[in-house]
Amino acid sequence: MSLTFAVGDMTVHRVIEMEAPLFDPLTFFPTLSKEVLDENLPWLRPDFIDPKTGEVVLCIQSYIVRTKHHNILIDSCVGNHKDRRSRPFWHQMSSDRYERGLAATGLTMADIDFVMCTHLHVDHVGWNTRLENGRWVPSFPKAKYVFADRELAFWTDREKTAPGEQPWITDSVLPIVEAKRHEIVKSTHELLDGVSLIPTPGHTIDHYSVRIGKPGADAVIGGDMIHSPLQARYPDLGMRADYDSAEAGRSRRSLFGGLCDTSTLLCTGHFPGTSKGRMTKWGDGFRFNPV
Ligand SMILES: [Zn+2]
Fold it and tell me: What residue ranges of the chain have pLDDT lower than 70?
């Protein structure tokens, strides 16, 4: 399976940090019933639900979009050497898989011009920083880090009221702000010609997706607006870390409705396998067709 594909005249690389069965579906999707899960297992297994453990299989990855003039990295995974005590499989990771994946693209961290974080959750900000002489410093030395304004304000405020309770903000977001390497934008912002943010709120307060390319040769990089193709079939199915599941459902209906039966690729944040596909209608919801 190739980790590189073209979208119009842009090249997109996937850099994978991890792909593994991680979470029990009935707790990951709190309103999912055992009956509905069982009914869908025949098509969810083996790719999306691990047949052995019964857990949701997730990929943790970055997308790198190469335009003629810029390299844009979207979402920066979990990162190494970070204290993540509530998630043993992400605690103090010390893996070279991510850096090897980046090297395989022919790029280095110094080649990245923009780091876009679709939202500020633990598995989307980790490689923003790296440990240097006991301090967290920006990993991508030349990059501007693009944060949505209300998203950054929400987490900054939470860090003030409950300091240390979101360690990924402490070690992977605030050091970027302190180093003045961030760019605060609206979630409707056009970053570059052919690279725009689309507001897809709900999973977090100001979650954004990224549209790349031109009509007829385009893709949407969707971050965490969806975690499993089950949430395409049932767009209202919330995920336990959602800020507002009803709003996340509305974002899925709106975005997927627009993608339905078009050539636009949906590049998901967390699906295993190819991670990307096209949408068609499926009953009251949508079918994710991997490509
Ligand atoms: Zn995520």
Answer: none
